Amino acid sequence: MMLDRRIEALVARRLTQSPAVVLLGPRQVGKTTLALAIAARAPGALVLDMERESDRAALARPELFLPLHRDRLVVVDEVQHLPGLFTALRPEIDADRRPGRFLLLGSASADLLRQSGESLAGRVAYVEMVPILAAEVAPDLATLQRLWLRGGYPLSFLAADDEASNAWRQDFIRTFLQRDLPAMGVRVPAETLRRFWTMLAHLQGQLQNASQLGQSLGGVSHVTAGRYLDTLVDTLMVRRLPPHLANVGKRLVKSPKVYVRDSGLLHALLGLADVRDLQGHPVAGASWEGFVVEQMAAALPVQAQLGFYRTAAGAEIDLVVEHRSRKIGIEIKFSSAPKPARGFWQALQDLAIGQAFVVAPVARGYALDERVRVLPLSGLPEIVQAVSA
Fold it and tell me: pLDDT digits over 303-329, tens only?
């Protein structure tokens, strides 16, 4: 099954605008496949993989190597293994600022972002590649359910059956903890971080409480627990959704909400191997919420701001999207007949939101009232249009 990844057009467009594009994303998300497809359309493109010793040797003296290839697209995969390259790219780009010279691929990390940000400010465009989206697969219910269960990593989603998919995700988690994080300089025992990650899975969509997490992990400090969380956020495994802090004269919840970003990894951490296990588990609603949050975040304009709204009095809405001068509310319900609670309506009043949506596993969209529509996941384009209007 071939997948048309929508981000490919964005990367290609950025390459026409900027000398260098950094494509960030976790391992196995499809970055290399996408880069090779782009390189195949660029005559003479040069592809280097920093996990290959011969390619690392070729770039050992980038100030000598790169000027020889100024007329070619140079793709550098796993660039975090050669951090000194960012420093060498700055004078090379300044010598020839032609767009589309470099496509740099890396597993996201704080170090990688800092290196590229300090060395290549104003010379580089960033694109984050996320797992497969619902908009990229067939719209039928069975395919959507498979994507939710297995998550969006291509080899997990496309596996022969659920058992093979679950096995792939368990191997991915093990490799990520035992090899990938140490290669990025993370010095935390793999078993400790797996226990922490699993705890986050059980608390999917709940407020961040580093002290509580630290105590549950055996009494580590809230600072240490916060550092573990930062590691998983930096590597795009976990999303920290900030609160929407409006000036409404009410006591607002100010802690972020935390989600394991890929639903398939969430289910693997919790031992949920098939749809029956998932639908009968207490995390099902929170899993669906996180799944929709990721679809929404990927579909919205880059400039849009996402947050959630909650007050001490119980007013609450899952997502508040701000873009330009517009503010849209989004509630997420795991129900075929969703009925927002009183707190949702109070939140709309608090924030003076005139247009809102409820995203649920329904067959078709319909209006709840003159300002709120219920939509299936396939209705996200309608929300994007409302945000961008």
Answer: 899 999 999 999 999 999 999 889 999
User: What type of residue is 42?
Assistant: A
For 292, the token pair is 């929709």
The average confidence (pLDDT) of the chain is 92
Full DSSP string of 336-379: SS----HHHHHHHHHTT---EEEE-S-SS-EESSSSEEEE-GGG
Confidence bin at 106 (pLDDT 50/70/90): confident
Alpha helix segments (H runs only) across 120-245 = 141-150, 154-157, 162-175, 181-183, 190-202, 210-216, 222-234
Q: CA 47, CA 34: separation in Å to the nearest integer?
A: 12
* H-helix segments, 203-283: 210-216, 222-234, 263-270, 275-279
Is CATH 1.20.140 the classification given to domain 138-294?
Answer: no
CATH architecture type of domain 300-389: 3-Layer(aba) Sandwich (3.40)
Domain boundaries, the chain: 7-128, 138-294, 300-389
Distance of CA 60 to the CA centre of its chain: 32
Residue 233 CB burial class (10 angstroms; 0-12, 13-18, ≥19): middle
Domain spanning 7-128 has what CATH number? 3.40.50.300
- The candidate with the shortest Cα–Cα distance to 254, out of 329, 310, 210, 331, is 310
Helices 263-270 and 162-175, packing angle to 10 deg: 90
Question: Beta strand pairing status for 372-375 and 356-359?
Answer: parallel
Give the Cα separation of 320 and 338 in Å (integer). Answer: 19
- DSSP helix/strand/coil, 303: coil
**Banded pLDDT at 343 (limits 50, 70, 90):** very high
Rounded Cα distance, 36 and 28, in Å: 14
Predicted pLDDT of residue 346: 96
The DSSP output letter for 79 is G
Better pLDDT: 154 or 210: 154
Rounded to the nearest 5°, which phi and psi values hold at 109? Answer: -155, 160
What does the alpha-carbon distance between residue 288 and residue 270 come to, in Å, rounded to a whole number? 14
Backbone torsions φ then ψ of 152, nearest 5 degrees: -100, 5
Strand partners, 24: 106, 128
Q: Tell me the pTM.
A: 0.93
